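User: I need a structural model of Serine/threonine-protein phosphatase 2A 55 kDa regulatory subunit B from Scleropages formosus for a docking pre-check later this week. Nothing fancy, just the predicted structure tokens so I can convert them on my end. Input:
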Amino acid sequence: MFPKLNVKWKYAGFWLRCEAPVWNLSPRDGSQVPWVPLLSLLPGAHSDIISTVEFNATGELLATGDKGGRVVVFQREQESKNQPQRRGEYNVYSTFQSHEPEFDYLKSLEIEEKINKIRWLPQHNAAYFLLSTNDKTVKLWKISERDKRPEGYNLKDEDGRIRDPATITTLRVPVLRPMDLMVEATARRVYSNAHTYHINSISVNSDYETFMSTDDLRINLWNLEITNKSFNIVDIKPANMEELTEVITAAEFHPNQCNTFVYSSSKGSIRLCDMRASALCDNHSKFFEEPEDPSNRSFFSEIISSISDVKFSHNGRYLMTRDYLTVKVWDLNMESKPLETYQVHDYLRSKLCSLYENDCIFDKFECVWNGSDSVIMTGSYNNFFRMFDRNTKRDVTLEASRENSKPRAILKPRKVCLGGKRRKDEISVDSLDFSKKILHTAWHPSENIIAVAATNNLYIFQDKVN
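Assistant: Understood. Predicted structure tokens for Serine/threonine-protein phosphatase 2A 55 kDa regulatory subunit B:
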């Protein structure tokens, strides 16, 4: 069992709390598998609201971006021979200001500093690289460590001031001296001035030389080494904007085919494109869309069918999409209908009118696969998040909150009832808090470790190891 910790400290405006022990759904027998809360990021100002969460390819690092333009990187603690059970805890590794608020003088518009997406690049040396974007500008950041500093300069004194050449009578060979470990984040590239509309997603290609950035109407392809030129590969902007019927909501490259990518739209459709076919991929190779049942049609049908996230499975065979009420899994070889459909919070169907009035119906929920593509996870309201086991067809609703994440306590499944009599462990749909929502989630690429962003709280849970 993890040691019982309850340590609080403040770092770059965040109050952090490391603690131990919570739980998850079982892959096979239906019993509860323990999860341990590894970290809680306690609430701060409005700018601390987390807007993206992303593990790197090994899962050793976890990056979060917030509305204030900051990126906080957490590093997983290395296993110690003396305390092997401490393996898995995430501590703050680096924090830096990625974007600042700007003003577009031509359009008289403010450009928010909010981080919309973070994507890690594969690690090829001791340094780490990540891409972060706000509404208009993508930046490439290098995160590196320094534990030595040069001393013994000839032309500078120890304080860095230039020495008078007349006072220099001997030559010294500078030497490297040990120093306290310092983690530096430096902006290596800035990819700007390529988007008229707001960037909603970025994706790194499997060739690791290019990436794409997507806004409401266009997708641009960049070379990582070239900042002043990008290639427009999708453009759905009509000649007359009054004829606009849909916008692009998300896009992602195939995990191992560098010529293939997919993008989703506000009309609930997904288009698979092949860059070998033509330079401009306005004509898709495959089109995925589920026909709407006429009996279910309502005023809100178009709004709730808008896809907020699209993700390839790790093996590249399947697509997962999230709309307002459901998560769907598509087989790339079957365009007519989804392979699987999971109801995330169908009990909200009767609440769509009030959700429209308070704008919650426009919330954009993300979805993620686990490392083996057997379980999918997505968020909901009241700080609930849902997990669906594709093999057993079991599902579970869990809650991320400090009250339910006490050390050594079981994170019990939650249930929502539609009305009438409710059991002691159930919560009424009328008492759900729609201001508490989990929009952003991430799953460790190979282990059962999940990160859940509940507004301005970050929760990291992992399987109990013993």
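Before docking, keep this in mind: Residues 1-34 have pLDDT under 50 and may be disordered.
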